[in-house]
């Protein structure tokens, strides 16, 4: 199988005043195309730092990271940003939608940065909103949508540039149990269609929907099991 995320002996430290805090301590992780992986761990385990590295929002202090076979070490900020826009679809706990825009315009937004023309943006956004079950909500603004519907808009937005990885940070954290399960079923359906899903969560019930659980503690991988 082809690796979509390859992490080799990655360390990440932050300077806290005069002291250096090592958050990741030599992490090795390989995620293959089409996997559905949960990254779990308590607060301070390094899971958010690892997510930021996979999402190309930060750089490792040492070690090597490759996303979709492209080694990121040595890329400048512009190259990193272009790679992020092309290969990573982000889904956040707080949805991060633009309140004044309709669902359709929110979903079109990432395509503007990829210089796609207006007709293509509208056609792609319409198609994907229908796929996530929001064909009748495209002209609604976030304030007119339920939490579950807002997260579906966020998932649609993450899909529009056909990324190699869907990266979800606590995607059910702001949802009730029933709505959270519906969103997790949507992730399962997307994964069955071949999407690679990497999810960060502290909730074992949410993690149980994935096919593989990677556990972090004190900046190290302490478990890697398949469901």
TrEMBL record:
Q: Which GO terms describe its molecular function?
A: ATP binding; ATP hydrolysis activity; transmembrane transporter activity
- Superkingdom classification of source: Archaea
Q: Which SUPFAM superfamilies match?
A: P-loop containing nucleoside triphosphate hydrolases
Q: Which CDD domains does the entry link to?
A: ABC_MJ0796_LolCDE_FtsE
Q: Which PANTHER family match?
A: ABC TRANSPORTER ABCH.1, IMPORT ATP-BINDING PROTEIN
* Protein's organism: Methanooceanicella nereidis
For the ABC transporter domain, which residue ranges apply?
5-227
State the protein's name. Macrolide ABC transporter ATP-binding protein
User: GO cellular component annotations, sorted alphabetically?
Assistant: membrane protein complex; plasma membrane
Keyword annotations from UniProtKB, A to Z: ATP-binding, Nucleotide-binding, Transport
Alphabetical list of InterPro entries matching this protein: AAA+_ATPase, ABC_transporter-like_ATP-bd, ABC_transporter-like_CS, ABC_transpr_LolD-like, MacB-like_ATP-bd, P-loop_NTPase
């Amino acid at each position: 199988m082809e690796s979509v995320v390859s992490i080799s002996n990655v360390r990440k430290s932050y300077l806290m005043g005069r002291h250096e805090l090592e958050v990741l301590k030599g992490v090795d992780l390989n995620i293959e195309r089409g996997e559905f992986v949960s990254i779990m761990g308590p607060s301070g385990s390094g899971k958010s730092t690892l997510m930021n590295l996979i999402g190309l929002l930060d750089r490792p202090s040492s070690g090597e990271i490759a996303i979709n076979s492209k080694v990121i070490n040595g890329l400048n900020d512009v190259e990193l940003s272009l790679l992020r826009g092309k290969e990573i679809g982000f889904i956040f706990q707080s949805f991060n939608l633009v309140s004044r825009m309709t669902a359709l315009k929110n979903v079109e937004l990432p395509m503007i940065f990829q210089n796609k023309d207006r007709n293509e943006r509208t056609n792609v956004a319409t198609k994907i909103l229908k796929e996530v079950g929001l064909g009748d909500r495209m002209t609604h603004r976030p304030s007119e949508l339920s939490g579950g519907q807002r997260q579906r808009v966020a998932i649609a937005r993450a899909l529009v540039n056909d990324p190699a990885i869907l990266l979800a940070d606590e995607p059910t954290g702001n949802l009730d149990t029933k709505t959270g399960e519906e969103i997790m079923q949507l992730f399962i359906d997307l994964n069955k269609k071949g999407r690679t899903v990497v999810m960060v969560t502290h909730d074992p019930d949410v993690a149980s929907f994935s096919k593989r659980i990677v556990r972090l503690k004190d900046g190290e991988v302490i478990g890697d099991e398949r469901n």
